[in-house]
Write a structure and sequence with these properties.
Chain lengths: 276, 276
Amino acid sequence: MAQALTDFSRLCVHTITTKPWPLEKAAKEFSAAGVSGITVWRDTLAGKNIAQARRMLQDLNLEVVSLCRGGFFPAREAAKKQAAIDDNLKAIDEAAALGAPHVVLVCGAVPGQPLTESRKQIQEGIAACLDHAAAAGVKLAIEPLHPMYADDRSAVNTLAQANDMAEALNSPWVGIAVDVYHLWWDPDLENQIKRCGQNGNLTAFHICDWNTPTTDLLNDRGLMGEGCINLKEIRGWVEATGFTGYNEVEIFSHKFWAQDQHQFLNKIKEAYLKHS
Amino acid sequence: MAQALTDFSRLCVHTITTKPWPLEKAAKEFSAAGVSGITVWRDTLAGKNIAQARRMLQDLNLEVVSLCRGGFFPAREAAKKQAAIDDNLKAIDEAAALGAPHVVLVCGAVPGQPLTESRKQIQEGIAACLDHAAAAGVKLAIEPLHPMYADDRSAVNTLAQANDMAEALNSPWVGIAVDVYHLWWDPDLENQIKRCGQNGNLTAFHICDWNTPTTDLLNDRGLMGEGCINLKEIRGWVEATGFTGYNEVEIFSHKFWAQDQHQFLNKIKEAYLKHS
């Protein structure tokens, strides 16, 4: 079991968590609340000067933890596969411009295409981006997604698969994002986290909770402590590998997005200390 | 890849699939449609004389494939655990009275209780029912459920786990129900089906499809061919073990339940031949 968190020095919040707030507003509020890190979703950068955004975040003393998200490599047509690679190269450029050390990859899947084929295409897609990632100094973090997203979001659905893929790619510019929402149920999770850390691939750690009942496959994530995830135990496994990075709060929730976002941010801070 | 299905001699339909129909109505319609097998859900037996129901099904030439469902063993309190065991003993008696060779187990989980503890309690619960199952000549079929049900429906979420548990219990009265909806995403599925068959544990095979998007975690299953599951390939793996049992159509769907059930049954027959 992990030691209790007593301050916000390792608290990072994803911009999607407070989706109603545009980037500037979120950054000011996070900073004023004592949040230390921010993971920027690409939609919040649309039409913006990224260098200016970077300065704004620096002035607010927010560390840019990562850029969300690249990926979606599999496709039936070659042109679409190339378009995905191009978009990932662009994401790498954006991350470099923003000062984000890694891009999170939601790897993708094509309904009806064999998962084995999608997995192959994902690995090939990542490989095709590695020279660019190395030149930019930006890591690509494979995020295994819950099996309920295997149809159209990710054919990588366990940490074992992500470990296999990262080890096969064998590059300092490939890592893994461990998200408790996707992985908590896996009987092999402790071992796979250990393996991920030992091989130097544990790049990011995302937290939230699993609601019972869950009313929406995408946008009904819980705040830490609301659900059934053994969060402190999993954080303990992550930290036992030597991981000292951020605990990133990533919550997609129609319920919370409809609420006052200041109050929600306060709830996040409280839940972070009490339940994470 | 499995050989095409050309008749309905191995088609079984679950009563829940045509939920609006009570047991007698479902049985008559299945029989008239040439369906060969029926899996009876316990709710349709409430208040009924089971011996009479058995004769009714025999007269209609429907083979009783299984009784759904027992399970839900884990609990925090000893009294609740005992109540679950008592209910499973009752399900075994009902199956014997109905002539069902096995009871499908939705094993259960308690939100917030460690999955390892729930798994232990499931195995203990099944073990406590085995003498009764043997005396009644009724098998208990562990059904691994999709990881999205790990919070409150089943702590057994992969076929590997079900295989481990069935092998540990090591009884001719324990088997496994393989349902494509729960297991299709698993990269280890082919191997685990092979293992399940080799160890004599492959007791039942349930089919349907996975919709994209899926709008409800429970009641938005697709008809075969509507979704992304590699159904013919999985049936091929199942049959390669020597399995010659029924292909059981088990579809929970608000959409289909709201439709004319005669038309739906025709759609099932068409999809069975074309896509299963």
